[in-house]
Amino acid sequence: MKNEAVAKRYGKALAELAHEAGRIPKVMEQLETVVNAWNECDDLRQLFLSPVLTDERATVLPSVYQRLGLDEDMQKFMAIIIENRRINLLSEILEQFRYHVEDVQNKVRVSLTSARPLSIPQKEKLVSTLTTETGREIIIEEHINPSIIGGLIVAIGSQVYDGSVKTQLRNIKQALVKER
Length: 180
Prior knowledge:
The protein is of the alpha+beta class. The chain contains 8 helices and 4 strands; from the N terminus they run ααααααβαβββα.
């Protein structure tokens, strides 16, 4: 939980700075580039994480940043999280950055789980309803899970609305068992 709170602080601060500077798309692109490189390159992770390689890191970082296409502001951000030993939270920081950018832009991410893909009219109706309910632009993350049999599970932040057939059947079963 502590790491989540730390990532939230960094992600929020970066989102606020990017918003104020009108640079959200550029910062998002650069942060995604860094996270992808971090996830794909063991040598890069070793360079960033090693407390022993400080001299080597100082020598190599400018060329790494140049190769990744990072501007001066992103290089400063990277220096801060490296110095504060938060580099291992890069993926979480990106996730929090996205969340705060969406919040600033009056958007909300909705996780939608269904047994099969929804038709375009069904999605449009759901988005319209959710937009009215939340007062925000909806970004749908669609997941297909045949095990729910039918219906929908909609998650908006920590709120989960479970209208799946699987859950309804489980509730009926529990009610029948209680009556015995």
